[in-house]
Amino acid sequence: MWFEDLLIQIKSVLVLNAPEGLRPILSAMLSATPILSAFGGLFAAVTLLERKMLGRIQNRYGPNRVGPFGIFQPVADGIKMLTKEDIVPKTADHSIHFLAPLLLLLTAMLGLSVIPYGEKLVAIRFEAGIVFFFAVGGAAELAVFMAGWASRNKYALLGSLRAIAQMVSYEIPLILSSVCVLMAAGTLSLDEVAKSQSGSMLSWYIMTPWGLMGCVLFLIATLAEVNRSPFDIPEAESELIAGHMTEYSGFKYAVFFLAEFVAMFAMCALTATLFLGGYHPPLPILAFIPGPFWLFAKLMVLVLLFIWIRGTMPRLRADQLMEFAWKFMLPMAVINLISTGCWIALGRGSLGWGLSALINLAAYGALSRWLSSRPNQQKRTYRFAEGPMHAA
After folding, report:
1. Where do the domains of the chain lie?
2. Ordered per-residue pLDDT tens for the chain, 392 residues
3. Distance between CA 130 and CA 183 in Å, rounded?
4. Which of 98, 223, 315, 342 has its CA 20 to 30 A from that of 184?
């Protein structure tokens, strides 16, 4: 609390000492600047961390040339992107080609504005904050299509259409898996959702059967939404080169890269708010540590999980990806809503806990067994040529 009060007092002094006409603009800038600077710095740190971790997973060093232990590699990458030539196809729509990456970055940044970083640290306090988060996130599909269509490249257009199909398909289970938390908290306000999980970590929604299932579904859908492995089909270089980013270079390409990471940070922050207690510490005795620290710590744990998944899981085929969304993720998210309703109806006690666990386990077992029996999910059998032709 002391940390939040200090920040609020500093902001109040700066705003009150400014000319009256500039106070609204200064207040907005003081709210936005910490978010932009914090997540901009986090982007640089995570890119280096990801390359280092992937290097260790793949038994290599990773960046180790620029600065001690390669810590200045993000600076070198930034300078390289700023100085590279910006090549735009002759027949491209130049204005839309330019606006697409900016719109994608804007949607990701706007999502961060409704995340509660502390009890009093919310840039924009909405009664329906989660609705705003998903509403601005829906504009990402438009930005991806703008990039593919404006490039006048068939690979870029096909990549954008594939990306939109994937994002729309996984957006449905993403939203449904968050509705279970809204049902339990009885509010659409992210600030109130975080407050409903105050106390010890036993009050976090992930400690319930429906909360655990909802969190897993939410994280899987998040990987697909931000095009992270193993759901990076839109950027499958063996098929579509770089997808909707094929005709982008230089700083525009870097903005796409930045937008992807900021969107991942925003989704991880939302996951922490919905299922992991938000800015609350795991134990009341640790409440003296500021809330933003706990939120960023939980966010980083989820980011490390995403990097680990990228380094260990192979990419899915396009048909497997879509079938998984519509025939497993969507039914499982709907069943999890029923499980949450049973937990609430039975008084949120041990009986509801057991019934919720039973419903989810039965549904998971039935759906996974049925989906694994599908023809395109079977393990492939590779046959090699034999006989005289092979010997020749």
Report:
1. 43-83, 87-313
2. 656 666 667 767 666 677 777 777 777 777 778 888 888 889 889 999 999 999 988 888 888 888 888 889 888 888 888 888 888 888 888 888 889 889 988 888 888 888 998 887 888 888 888 999 998 888 888 888 898 888 888 888 888 888 888 888 999 999 999 999 999 998 899 999 999 988 888 899 999 999 999 999 999 999 988 888 888 776 665 666 677 888 888 888 888 888 889 999 999 999 999 999 888 999 888 888 888 899 999 999 999 999 999 888 888 777 888 888 898 999 999 999 999 999 999 888 889 899 999 999 999 999 888 887 777 666 666 666 565 555 54
3. 13
4. 223
Q: Amino acid identity, residue 118?
A: G
Query: What does 190-202 look like in DSSP terms, one character per residue?
Result: HHHHHHTT-SSGG
What's the count of helices (H) and strands (E) in the chain, helices before strands? 16, 0
* CA distances to 112, 230, 323, 367 from 374, in Å: 40, 20, 10, 11
What do you get for the CA distance between the two ends of the chain, in Å?
Answer: 79
Which DSSP category does 317 fall into?
P
Amino acid at site 216: V
